[in-house]
Design brief:
This protein is an alpha+beta fold. The chain has two domains: 126 residues, Uridine Diphospho-n-acetylenolpyruvylglucosamine Reductase, domain 2, CATH 3.30.43.20; 299 residues, Cytochrome p450 (Orthogonal Bundle). Helix content is 48%, strand content 11%. The chain contains 21 helices and 15 strands. A hairpin with a 6-residue loop joins strand 7 and strand 8. The longest helix has 25 residues. It starts with 10 loop residues before the first helix and ends with a strand. The protein binds protoporphyrin IX containing FE. Protoporphyrin IX containing FE binds next to helix 15, helix 16 and helix 21. One of its GO terms (biological process) is cholesterol homeostasis. InterPro entries: CYP450_sterol_14alpha_dmase, Cyt_P450, Cyt_P450_CS, Cyt_P450_CYP7A1-type, Cyt_P450_E_grp-IV, Cyt_P450_sf. This is 25/26-hydroxycholesterol 7alpha-hydroxylase. Its EC number is 1.14.14.29. One of its GO terms (cellular component) is endoplasmic reticulum membrane.
């Protein structure tokens, strides 16, 4: 966290002088110069915030990595962030991301950002149906070799296995097929470079000079070159969302501009880095919970039977969006994984002094500070979700239907699950993400037997704290074989 927001010149001012004004929330400074409470927060964010809440209530400010961040913990107060959007800016936070992908034009041209956002409508509606069709075809290509090979048990590492499948399937569905005969080697090389780059991404968001981050500059350059207009023009079967983005980018840049590739890298990053750990955790929890595995398998079998699809040899599954939407058991499993494993936050920069008018107590925020909501706190609230640390595949099912009512202090919550963010910046890929994870799980469960080899429990590693779904703290060994 400290790395994220470093500005050393603020150090003396921020750490050594008093930082309180009347009406401001309680302040927890920590004892480490500059880092403040970063280490406690990163070690176990939920427990740490819980302890602070007990002492200070639902709104307090922490000094973290050279910044003052006010946390709003009460879910009924989350709308304060949306209500005050004219005084709270997303830009400062976005700029860190733009810089990490070397996107410079976005910093100056607001209309470019707006135009790119209009392309995200092609992740919904009819375009989403087409994406799902292409995804299913691409899954067949990725899985069929596994099906042919895996008649005996194969041992694999779950994170690596899920990364490999989801990266290839997502990349091909959005950007199309590589034309070359050595397609497999090219995709493997792209994937390996991509994950090396992603491994350094957290540092890229910091103010640490790029040259101190090993080979990340050259890796980024290589990836961006692989995603240049010229290279991508040779791909076959590109998605509508890609084409619309490319056309939009060509309005602002020369076609050969390096930065177009940087935009594609940023989109590729957004489209896989959360979906992969979500799929990994879903597979992990299903293997650990036989009752969940059997309920989900029953639901799949039932749907395949009712749609006249046989499980015979070869890959033949075809499901529509409506059919996937109707799978409440699978849906509940995916939502439960997102509830347990999402540690993203919504963070805004305070552009001018501001008073948050709350029902309980007004709180003054100071220009130059940050304000954050951290939905993982809501997701782990025992008043809302009984035994929140437990995986319960049917948590989002009630009377055989999707459960959508959750309460706190006897009041119905408007938002009870927020892994995709909130407000105008909410993830535009959320519908595609859930469909993709569902269809990959269906294929995996229909055609393969899966077993955990090593049964030691794993927990999130907090390496992506505030940015999305966490990976586990160690690899998970499992085995799979094609069903006879
Ligand atoms: C489980 C999977 C996913 C999760 C948990 C997730 C979560 C998020 C979150 C938390 C944000 C930031 C929202 C905010 O700041 O309020 C975001 C942004 C974004 N996501 Fe996703 N995402 C997922 C999958 C996807 C997929 C599959 C795509 C594309 C196909 C995608 C595209 C994007 C884009 C383009 C943005 C940036 C939007 C902007 O510029 O405002 N995401 N996502």
């Amino acid at each position: 966290i400290g790395l994220l927001t470093a500005k050393p010149y603020l150090l003396g001012k921020l750490f050594f002088f008093s930082y309180r004004r009347p009406g401001e929330p309680p302040l927890i400074k920590g004892w480490l110069p500059y880092l403040g409470v970063a280490l406690q927060f990163q070690k176990n964010p939920l427990n740490y915030l819980k302890a602070l809440q007990k002492q200070h209530g639902d709104i307090f400010t922490v000094f973290l990595g050279g910044r003052y961040i006010t946390f709003i913990l009460d879910p009924f107060q989350y709308q304060l962030l949306i209500k005050n959007h004219n005084k709270l800016s997303f830009k400062v936070f976005c700029h860190k991301f733009f810089k990490a992908f070397s996107l410079t034009k976005l910093l100056e041209h607001g209309e470019l950002n707006d135009d790119i956002h209009t392309c995200y409508q092609f992740l919904q509606g009819k375009s989403l149906d087409i994406l799902l069709e292409d995804l299913t075809k691409n899954l067949k290509q990725v899985f069929e070799p596994h099906l042919l090979r895996a008649t005996n048990w194969n041992v694999a590492q779950l994170c690596t296995f899920c990364s490999s499948i989801l990266f290839e399937v997502t990349f091909t569905t959005i950007y199309g097929h590589l034309p070359a005969d050595n397609r497999k080697e090219l995709i493997n090389e792209l994937r390996d470079d991509f994950f090396k780059f992603d491994g350094k991404f957290y540092y890229l968001l910091s103010d640490i000079p790029l040259d101190l981050l090993g080979n990340v500059r050259s890796l980024r350059k290589k990836l961006i070159q692989c995603l240049s207009s010229e290279k991508l023009a040779k791909m076959q079967g590109q998605s509508e969302v890609f084409q619309k983005r490319q056309n939009t980018l060509e309005k602002y840049y020369a076609r050969e501009d390096f930065e177009i590739g940087a935009h594609h890298l940023a989109f590729l990053w957004a489209s896989v880095t959360n979906s992969i750990p979500t799929m990994m955790w879903a597979t992990y929890y299903l293997m650990r919970h036989p009752e969940a595995m059997s309920a989900v398998r029953d639901e799949i079998d039932h749907l395949l039977q009712s749609t006249g699809q046989k499980k015979g040899s070869g890959f033949s599954i075809h499901l529509t969006r409506e059919q996937l939407d109707s799978m409440i058991c699978l849906e509940s499993t995916v939502l439960e994984v997102l509830r347990l494993c999402s540690l993203s936050g919504t963070i805004r920069f305070v552009q001018e002094d501001l008073t948050l008018d709350s029902e309980l107590k007004d709180s003054c925020l100071r220009k130059g500070d940050f304000v954050a909501i951290f939905p993982a706190f809501l997701h782990n609230d025992p008043e809302i979700f009984e035994a929140p640390q437990e995986f319960r595949y049917d948590r989002f099912i009630e009377d055989g239907k999707k459960k959508t009512t959750f309460y706190k202090r006897g009041k119905k919550l408007k938002s009870y699950l927020m892994p995709f963010g909130t407000g105008t910046t909410k993830c535009p890929g959320r519908f595609f993400a859930v469909l993709e994870i569902k269809i990959v799980l269906i294929v995996l469960l229909t055609y393969f037997d899966l077993e955990l080899i090593d049964d030691k429990p794993v927990k999130p590693n907090y390496n992506r704290l505030l940015f999305g779904i966490e990976y586990p703290d160690s690899e998970v060994l499992f085995r799979y074989r094609a069903k006879s």
